[in-house]
What does this fold into?
Amino acid sequence: MIKCNVTVCGTVSRQAQMRANKEGTQFASFGINIVIPAKSGINKTVEISVAKTCNNLSELPPIQVGTRIEVAGILMFHKKGEALYLNLSATGINTFNAGNNDGINGTMEFRGTLGKQIEDKTTKNGKSFTVFSAYSSEKDGDNYTYTWVRFMQFDKRKEAWMQPKAGINAKGDLELGVYNNRLDLTCRISECSLWEKSSNSYQH
It folds into this structure.
């Protein structure tokens, strides 16, 4: 599970349309393009699919393709094959004071499985920090897909339970970048704990 509480600033890429979910709840659906800066290579434009519960489009600010927009809400990542999809459940929409700079700012909640390398490192100023990666898995047809996140925990050494394949709950600041044309997810941890996996868990 990767769940992010964010504010997104970008450009409307798909016109808003009314839709309904399986329960019959009405919502507006539209797209936002965000340019993510590259750590290596060239910047990457990603599209976020936005859903906002409402009865009709007149309840929302005008959402026209090409309009700058700021949207607050819950961002979820879904993997299908090699493609990573970004879906935002909006709580607020603002087209009046949206900035000129693209960005996704907020916090991440993560539940998943630690990878093989968990490293203790030291900054130039002598401060300790831990670096590791972990993945969240989800069912895609008959197979599982895995979304990896890189974690950094400052002023703290590796805890004893931090071993490869251990479950982890983590919270912290979300950072997005691009590396070799792939979206790179990073979390600066504010708190984390062991996740005791249940026998019927879908996580691998």
Summary: The chain has no helices and eleven strands. The chain has two domains: 2-106, 107-194.
